Each structure stands twice: as structure tokens, then as C-alpha cells.
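testing teh design pipeline on a random one, pls ignore if ur not involved
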């Protein structure tokens, strides 16, 4: 299949790209600069020789940003839209988070409708942020999160702080996508991927320790000793490995039954204590940077068990897309190895 992948320089997108190429698809990926395109191209001397190309899209928030990128010869059959800001280092919630998330999503759908009639299916990277109810996190044991749930966040709540701004950006962007399909009745179907915290190895050609993507930062920080005096609480207690998540994206363009659906893609619960244990047990060189295995702190599950947490239902992802999940230990070990290669 000929696929357009947006945001190819991102943590998750880099793995989606690898998965697409490994599975024989031909890919054009958007990046913000020629320099990033060159780095990615160099990483695929064989696999990418005839099957990897680039389109420069500097800012997805701009009107018409994707108008050129959606046109290709041979034409695209599928699009995977992952590009969206995920960091809390912002000055203006609307300009820095909401606009690129929402305009980026509606912008690519409009461009496809206008200029890429061959596209049959569009996969959009949404988030558990568009599912969860912030007021109820994490102790809501009587509730099971499924693809039916929507974050009830409002435009006012989006401005409370950058974390709420990010959650709102994902919620509003995903809603805008489903509304677009309902109102515009385009020639293509969409489906969304809604992962919680994503951990796992970073590709060497794009990352430095300082420019690490947001979700992996806690693991770097723990190894560097930033939680030596006590682990912080985990915040969200659900996760997925980035390689499993990449496959969730690619399977959605391969499995016709995936069309028109949301996918709550999670491997299950994790805690910061499990992350610290995985680092301590596998990398003795960081032992002194971590609290002792039995030290007090908030890193464990509330009251030491998952009993008081909300439940989750990932059965659609498991059954329809045939996904098996890596363990948190494997994910942490592979991330730390990749960070060591980057100088940790
Ligand atoms: P990254 O920060 O690594 O990737 C974000 C990508 O989006 C980068 O390629 C970035 O380009 C691009 N991007 C951001 N803003 C713009 C813009 N204005 N114009 C053009 N490109 C832009 O994060 P992840 O890989 O973690 O995130 C990818 C997707 O997954 C996002 O949609 C995110 O919301 C979602 N997600 C991530 C989770 C996680 O835990 N990591 C959890 C749930 C969802 P550049 O690097 O050049 O700025």
C-alpha cells in the first residue's frame, strides 16, 4: 500500500515508519525540515531505497499545510496522521497546542477530500487523553474505560494548565475528525488509535538525551537520579510499548474491519515503581540513582494494588488487530539501552 505518514520525526512515528517499511508498504512521510528528512533517509539505506520519500510540512496549524503533501505518484491509498504537539513547554495553549492539533487534523482531512480521491482510509493518532475523565483519575474502580468513553473537558478547562491543554487538544482534534466524516461524507473512512502512556526505545538518528519525547522523560529522569528521594505517583496507570503501538497503526490500514472505529490501545497497568525496579534489576550502574526497592514513596499503585484503579477494556485492539503486548520490563530495558547509546 502507498501510505502518507505525517510527523515522521516523532517518537511514535519513527516506529510506525519502520513497521510500514518492514511490512512492505511504500511511504511518503512529512517532516518539518530537509535536515530531518536526510537523517531519516540515511537510516534506511536498503528498506527505504525505493519505498521512502519525504514532503516538507513546516507547520500543520497553517491553513492548507497538507495541500501539496497529499498529492503523490503513485497516489496514496492510506494516510496515517500522527503529527501533533506533545509537550508542556508552551506559552499559549491555543497557539501552541489546540491549533496544531485541531487544524492539523481537519486540515489533512480537507486536503485529502479535495485532492486525493484515491485515499480509502485515514488512521489518526488520538490518545487516552480523549477518553479519560480527568476529575475521576485514577481511582474509579467501578468504571471500565472503553472506546465508548469521551473526555468531558471543556474549552475553559483547556486553559487551566498545559497538561489540561494537551488533553483538550487531543479530545477536540479527535472530535473534529469524527464530525468531519459525519458532516462532509468524504470518500474515505477514518479510524483512531487511543493509547495511554507510550514507552520504549527511541531511534538513535533523531534523539538526544535533552530532546527526548515527553512520555519517556520520566524513565530518563529516574536513571539520572531525579527521583532518588522518592518516586512520584504515576499519574496515568495505563501504558503501551511504542513498537506494539506502531503495529496497531499499521494493522488499521491492513484490516478492513478496523475502519470507522476507535482503538483503545493499552497493554494494561504500570507503576513508576515497576519502572524503577526494571532499571535497578537490569542496569546496576544506575542503582545508586534510584530509591531502594522498598523505600517509601508514591511510585507504587494506590494502597499497593490495582484494585482501586479504574478498569480498562482493550479487547477490540487485541482481537481485531491481533496485537500481543510487550512487558513493561522489556520496554524499559530497551529504552534505557537506546538512551545509553545517546549518552545516558
Ligand atoms: P513527539 O513529540 O515525538 O512527536 C510529535 C510529532 O509531531 C513530531 O514529529 C513533531 O515534529 C510533530 N509536530 C508537532 N507540532 C507540529 C507542527 N505545528 N507542525 C508540524 N509538525 C508538528 O511525540 P509522540 O511521538 O509521543 O507523539 C505522536 C502522537 O502520539 C501525537 O499525536 C501524540 O498526541 C500522540 N500520543 C502520544 C503518547 C505518548 O505517550 N507518547 C500517548 C498518546 C498519544 P518536530 O519533532 O519536528 O517538532
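output:
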Amino acid at each position: 500500500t502507498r501510505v502518507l505518514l505525517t510527523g515522521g520525526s516523532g517518537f511514535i512515528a519513527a516506529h510506525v515508519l519502520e513497521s510500514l517499511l518492514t511490512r512492505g508498504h511504500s511511504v511518503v512521510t512529512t517532516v518539518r525540515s530537509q535536515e530531518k528528512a536526510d537523517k531519516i533517509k540515511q537510516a534506511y539505506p536498503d528498506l527505504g531505497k525505493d519505498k521512502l520519500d519525504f514532503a516538507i510540512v513546516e507547520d500543520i496549524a497553517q491553513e492548507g499545510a497538507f495541500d501539496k503533501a497529499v498529492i503523490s505518484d503513485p497516489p496514496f491509498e492510506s494516510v496515517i496522521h500522527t503529527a501533533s504537539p506533545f509537550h508542556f513547554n508552551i506559552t499559549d495553549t491555543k497557539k501552541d497546542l489546540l491549533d496544531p492539533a485541531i487544524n492539523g487534523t481537519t486540515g489533512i482531512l480537507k486536503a485529502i477530500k479535495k485532492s486525493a480521491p484515491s485515499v480509502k482510509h485515514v488512521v489518526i493518532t488520538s490518545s487516552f487523553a480523549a477518553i479519560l475523565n480527568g476529575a475521576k483519575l485514577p481511582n474509579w474502580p467501578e468504571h471500565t474505560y472503553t472506546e465508548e468513553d469521551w473526555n468531558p473537558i471543556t474549552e475553559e478547562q483547556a486553559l487551566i494548565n498545559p497538561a489540561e491543554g494537551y488533553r483538550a487538544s487531543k479530545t477536540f482534534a479527535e472530535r473534529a475528525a469524527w464530525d468531519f466524516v459525519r458532516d462532509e461524507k468524504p470518500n474515505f473512512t477514518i479510524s483512531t488509535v487511543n493509547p495511554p502512556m507510550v514507552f520504549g526505545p527511541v531511534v538513535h538518528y533523531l534523539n538526544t538525551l535533552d530532546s527526548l519525547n515527553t512520555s519517556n522523560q520520566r524513565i530518563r529522569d529516574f536513571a539520572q537520579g531525579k527521583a532518588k528521594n522518592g518516586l512520584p505517583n504515576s499519574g496515568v496507570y495505563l501504558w503501551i510499548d511504542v513498537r506494539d503501538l506502531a503495529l496497531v497503526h499499521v494493522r488499521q490500514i491492513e484490516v478492513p474491519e478496523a475502519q470507522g472505529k476507535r482503538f483503545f490501545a493499552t497493554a494494561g497497568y504500570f507503576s513508576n515503581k515497576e519502572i524503577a525496579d526494571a532499571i535497578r534489576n537490569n542496569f546496576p550502574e544506575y542503582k545508586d540513582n534510584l530509591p531502594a526497592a522498598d523505600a517509601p514513596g508514591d511510585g507504587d499503585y494506590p494502597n499497593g494494588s490495582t484494585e482501586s484503579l479504574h478498569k480498562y477494556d482493550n479487547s477490540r485492539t487485541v482481537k481485531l488487530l491481533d496485537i500481543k503486548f510487550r512487558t513493561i520490563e522489556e520496554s524499559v530495558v530497551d529504552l534505557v539501552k537506546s538512551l545509553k547509546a545517546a549518552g545516558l
